[in-house]
Amino acid sequence: MSEALVTVEAAGTGSTVPAASGARLFWRLRAQRAALVAAAVVALLVLIALAAPLLTAVEGQDPTTYHPSLIDSARGGVPVGSFGGIGADHWLGVEPQTGRDLFARLVYGARVSLGVALAATVIQVVVGVVVGVAAALGSQWVDQLLSRITDVIVAMPLMIMSLALLAIVPASFPRPVLVTLVIGLVAWGSIAKIVRAQTLSTKGLDYVSAARLSGWRTWQIARRELLPGLAAPVITYAALLVPMNISVESALSFLGVGVKPPTPSWGQMLTAADVWYQAAPQYLLLPAGALFVTVLSLTVLGDGVRTALDPRAASRLRVGTGRKDPAANARADVGQTAGSADVTKKKEASA
Amino acid sequence: MRQPSVIARRVAAASVSLVVAAGAAACGPKDNDAKGSGGDSTPHKGGTLTVLNSQPQTDFDPARLYTSGGGNVPSLVFRTLTTRNRADGAAGAKVVPDLATDTGRPSKNATVWTYTLKKGLTYEDGTPITSADIKYGIERSFAPELSGGAPYLRDWLTGAADYQGPYKDKKGLSAIETPDDRTIVFHLNKPEGEFPFLATQTQFAPVPRSKDTGTKYEEHPVSSGPYEVVKNENDGEHVLLKRNPHWSEATDDQRKAYPDTIDVRSGLDSSVIDQRLSASQGADAAAVTTDTNLGPAELAKVTGDKDLAARVGTGHFGYTNYIAFNPTVKPFDNPKVREAIAYAVDRSSVVNAAGGSALAEPATTFLPNQKSFGYTPYDPFPAGPSGNPAKARELLAQAGYKNGLTVTLTHSNAKDFATSPEIATALQDALKKAGITVRLQGLEDNDYRDTVHSVKTEPGFFLAGWGADWPSGGPFLAPIFDGRQIVKDGANFNASRLDDKSVNNEIDAINKLTDLDAAAKRWGALDKKIGGRALVVPLFHPVYKRLVGKDVRNVVISDWTGVLDISQVAVK
Amino acid sequence: MSGFGGFLLRRAVGTVITLLAVSVIVYVVFYATPGNVAQITCGPRCSPEQVHQVAERLRLDDPLSVRYWHFLQGLFVGQDFSTGTSVEHCAAPCLGESYQTGRQVLDIILGKLPVSLSLVVGAMVLWLLLGVGTGVLSAWRRGRISERALTAVTLAGTATPVFVIGLVLMIVVCGELQLLPFPQYVNFTDDPEQWAWNLLLPWLSLALIEAATFARLTRSAMLETLAEDHVRTFRAYGVGERAIVVRHALRGAFAPVIALNANNVGSAIGGAVLAETLFGLPGIGQELVHAVAVVDLPVVVGMVLVISFFVVLANAVADVLYAVADRRVVLA
């Protein structure tokens, strides 16, 4: 998924009024059935990841034990039995070549994949918001410096820098943490751009000017007036970042620098499984399906949150054509900011 | 010996094999199986052979190539003083004359080797090949600009250790004499009965001084073989060869050169190569690969399909994957600990991780299981196919680790199924049963090599592999166990730091032998003697399964390379 | 139009600064990566003396700052290299020569760039067709089953890594159905038809990944327009739904789609690493991954700079296009 899209998409959430309170957000979200279902699925996935040891204990398996008797060594180690050895002992069959339990690897893999993706997203959001707000509120000089740094970060090929960074750090450093840090610290450029643009546009608005006139300090304004306004684009963008980060994790595994065995991750499973598509299809379909469900539910949830956060959506609903919130998503997606921070709208500039 | 990565990268270690032996013997009429659509199994001249490879043919310069027996694609363009016998199986592990009239005449206790060139040898432009060109070809391989080859010339030629090649040092190497245009004499600093094997490497190919363009020479090296380079795009990624009109069968009884054109395409994903060969669409019907073998997933599919199975051949290349110990690191200084690990190892699960019983054979000897290496079967720590954890616990208790032991296993993160995480995790699982907790230290490929090959940083317990530069015990055992080959400030391969007078003396004694069969027997005996010390734990010898396109015939795979020999393949 | 001239000038200066910063970062990061460059270049069995000679020739023993200075010199003045038998001049902007092969980095890049550009530009056409098409359909059929199914399909593309989609497509389309040849790059200038047939699967694999984002963007932009007052007025006047969708709503989606697209093309040139590796296309991405593996610093720096250049360029183009499409935007 492209960073630019998200820039365009998320920035637009551009609510020009202070954001909705938590309770109101919840009520608005409740009005959307699809988003609720998606939220439930995401919650379930997180729960499965957290409860991995419990679930595998119920199954009576673990993700690392080899079962040589369940594979056919002479045929490359393909699982014995139909559907990849699915049965009462191994709910989703076993892995080719090793006979390790696939259900156990899938649920433990969820821990790594979701954990890395969520944690990396948090890092990206924090760094992006800090840099973006600082650039928007700082002096011309600070803005120039931070914007240039952001440009450099955006310009560098993410995958290549990750390859290099992952090779530098000593092997003793815990791998999932390292992968998280690398993804998080290499890919915060677009969120910084969005936040800067958003902050710039909010900064000029009347209520902020009023606050400034009444003698508030910059950081007070940032905290009380600007940050709440950023919630909508940032949350929207974060929902899109999570699946992006999951695919980066799997790409790093494909290139051989991801999370290391025996720790399972979805990306690693996909990498090992793609060649088994013909001989042991379920080996590939399981992690691919898990990834699909995750991305789908996160996307739908992201849409829902965005709709709920856009205060104009509600009024559109009332005065609109009677069809459900037609404009809400649209406003969010078309946005007021293009890919670059150097573009500002006339009306904002004049505001 | 090359290291694993080099094998994977530069030399086609994987091998294709004989469709004929594997397929036809088992089923059906001998002539039709595996021989392609025609039904006529006689190979004919003509057509285009496509080679689908994963690694590009980089450094297409005879000075820079590190090959076993002259390589595969390179050997179509570069003829050498001697070459490997182009025959199936064990017969292919012999050295035979190529440019020279014989495999070399030793004198002075095998320290002087003399060769005479055949008559009527010419380059692709018709100019004659002289012994001075061979000398020049060897000299330029010493230039820092053209580094990359095997270390033997520098180690063996008298006074060559500090030579920097003909670009800096115009005087040349005095260890090589060319009394006339057809004679070349090599002076060695010690007896080397295996010199004829060394003379198969591409550094022994002639290079005309007037055509030498230094680092640019690889773009169009001057051919002495049956094909000349038409195109070499993107540093060996697409190489197009066509017949060299000045090459003559009369002076070359090894290369058959059936196809008119050979089109080498590389940079391909290995699973895609196997898919293409299996589909055999269009030009792929006349395609082979020289560096990719069937992976476990493809093997699982192929074994269920009779037509495909008939197109798969099996090859062996002298290679051993093993656990290396550094006895200067505790607790591996204690032989009992090393023996305990040797007993605890579950070779069947390691073999599975390496691709299953069709792609790997369990190993208990360090020497590969082939006669030319002097293979002598032995198993100093007989633990059965899946290990003997009880015996291991017993040995650990004797060593003072009654309650078990925690150790760190260093491995690479390369996706090579040799020193890679898959093998390491299989060992981790097996050693757990013997009360040994294994922590894995996976290093990125370069880091791994720097770490395990430096005496300063070498870990106590790591995965390693060793392959043959030529099919003999010498280059297999000496770099690993010869005490004088411990390198303190560079790449060291004697990981166990073994420096035993009796071992060193025996290596010297065998090197004096020019009777290679007698030498092989003594290498085998030496291997057995060292094996009892548990300095390494041999794990498996890889086996190569290679698929060829449906129109490919005359497939020849020797035990020297384990690879389908392109110089023998016909597509018509 | 002095505003535009000023914009160009500022952008050019910004680009140079950004690229120099990128080169410094790459130098520092790769200086720190493990791997004895001289040993890798020389070969695993090289003696310490040989390794030393190679290090000397490649100036690997110089401190980082000196090496970077040489790089800058090459970039602005050019450099001379010895091939052993002769001296070769590499004119400015010289990106140096590969440690591993001794070839000039710029030549390597120029040999690979057509492949990467072919891949990305073709994929772009496909993702625009697929994405915008799906977007229009789903805006039109909003809320119905067909719209949800379309959304799910495009998202499945996004959710599946390119190496999985690509391999499965290849096995099915080329191996089992034999509808297309297995991809193998053919120069456009040699045979345009074969070029297209061979690249069709790689294009499709990349396009499936990007299509979903364009579909969603198009859909929401259209819905935005459809809800605007003048459209409601048209409707009230009885203008046909199809005409409204095509003439008005689709036009509304034009600006954001163009902006996003220009931006994506830039990052995709570097981001097609996985597709190039899987399909065996000899492009920048594939070469770069290899260069990283063997710590071939000049090649890595050169290629990263080229990719960064395209990203920066694409961002500028996106801004210009956006300003052209939407008059309310000024270029600053």
From TrEMBL, chain A:
CDD domains: TM_PBP2
Record localization: Cell membrane
Keywords from the named record: Cell membrane, Membrane, Transmembrane, Transmembrane helix, Transport
Stretches assigned to the ABC transmembrane type-1 domain: 110-302
Gene Ontology biological-process entries: transmembrane transport
First-listed, main subcellular location of the protein, grouped into a coarse class: membrane
Transport as UniProt keyword: yes
Transmembrane domains' residue ranges: 34-55, 112-137, 149-171, 177-195, 226-246, 283-302
Gene Ontology CC: one annotated term: plasma membrane
Keyword presence, Transmembrane helix: yes
Membrane topology (UniProt): Multi-pass membrane protein
InterPro entries tied to this protein: BP-dependent_transpt_permease, MetI-like, MetI-like_sf, OppC_N
Domain of life the protein comes from: Bacteria
Region (Disordered): 320-351
UniProt similarity note: Belongs to the binding-protein-dependent transport system permease family.
Protein name according to UniProt: ABC transporter permease
Organism: Streptomyces misionensis
Classification of source organism: Bacteria, Bacillati, Actinomycetota, Actinomycetes, Kitasatosporales
UniProtKB/TrEMBL annotation, chain B:
Keywords: Signal
Bias (Basic and acidic residues): 209-221
MF terms in GO: peptide transmembrane transporter activity
InterPro entries: Peptide/Ni-bd, SBP_5, SBP_5_dom
Residues annotated as signal peptide: 1-26
Keyword Cytoplasm: no
Positions of the Solute-binding protein family domain: 94-484
Pfam families: SBP_bac_5
Name of this protein: ABC transporter substrate-binding protein
Organism placement in taxonomy: Bacteria, Bacillati, Actinomycetota, Actinomycetes, Kitasatosporales
Automatic annotation (TrEMBL), chain C:
InterPro entries: BPD_transp_1_N, MetI-like, MetI-like_sf
Membrane-topology descriptor: Multi-pass membrane protein
Keyword Chaperone included in the entry's annotation: no
The ABC transmembrane type-1 domain, residue ranges: 113-322
Pfam families for this protein: BPD_transp_1, BPD_transp_1_N
GO function term, MF aspect, one: dipeptide transmembrane transporter activity
A Gene Ontology term for the protein's cellular component: plasma membrane
Alphabetically ordered keywords of this record: Cell membrane, Membrane, Transmembrane, Transmembrane helix, Transport
Main location per the UniProt record: membrane
TM regions (residue ranges): 12-30, 115-137, 149-175, 195-215, 257-279, 299-325
Name the UniProt record assigns to this protein: ABC transporter permease
Lineage, uppermost ranks: Bacteria, Bacillati, Actinomycetota, Actinomycetes, Kitasatosporales
